[in-house]
Amino acid sequence: MQRDQLADFLRRRREAIRPAEVGITGGPRRRTAGLRREEVAMLAGMSVDYVVRLEQGRSSQPSPQLLGALARALRLSDDERDHLFHLAGHRPPPADGTARSARAGLTRMLDLLGDTPALVLSDLGEVLAQNRASVLLTGDHTGHTGDRRYLVHRWFTEPAARAVHPPEDHEHHAHQLVADLRATAGRRSGDPEVAGLVDRLRAASAEFRRLWDAHEVAVRRADRKTLLHPRVGRLLLNCETLVTPDQGQLLLVFTPADAEARERLELLRVLGVEEFPTGAADSPVR
Predict the structure, then answer these.
(1) Which of 81, 118, 179, 283 has the fewest CB neighbours in a 10 Å radius?
(2) Pick the CATH number of 3-87 from 1.10.260.40, 3.40.225.10, 1.10.3720.10, 3.40.1190.20
């Protein structure tokens, strides 16, 4: 662990970020050019004291999980994130397979989209990052572990996961999820993460086995879907999908498809976040 270099790097990255880039209003009395330490702590979900100790070179070795949170909070590029891990004495996350952190460019786009719901997914359907509007719309999907990380796994193994879609759309949505997973499996042939997920789903769900054996293939792009929100009701939304060049991550952006959906999204922003009903936050939205 290179404490002095780590401290210098974190401090300079913090000072280089404009508050507006992470959705923080600058204000006329602001003396700090970049982010304050307490703002970094809030964005990374850690104590201000630990951020101070990191920047002063007095901290214990941060864990990979903590470094990942700092990388997201500071909007680090992939190269900067790898450098951060090296300075802290850890091996950087692998570049191949499923990345566990949203790419810096996609994270910045989430910030810029503001009140438009958007989220970043891996090519296996793991939610890597969401903006506040997306959390209001679908709940927070970023805290799952194990196979529950994957939207397709929750869809086929947890009945409550389907509550966000009308029953008449369930068959269509199931076909889409499996066809998209087929495309990923073909592109990542021989990848044990993909093969293991498919094997576990085949063992857990007869419906998945039936759809998988049909060998339908379709990469998800633009779509229109109906979501059922427990507080504002039915919303008809357009879903635009932007894919990174290596097809490893996707940015999903939801916009209202009619005036009623626009009004209900505005109402949702006014209502803000209260406790999301049990099961609703586990529902796939892809």
Answers:
(1) 179
(2) 1.10.260.40
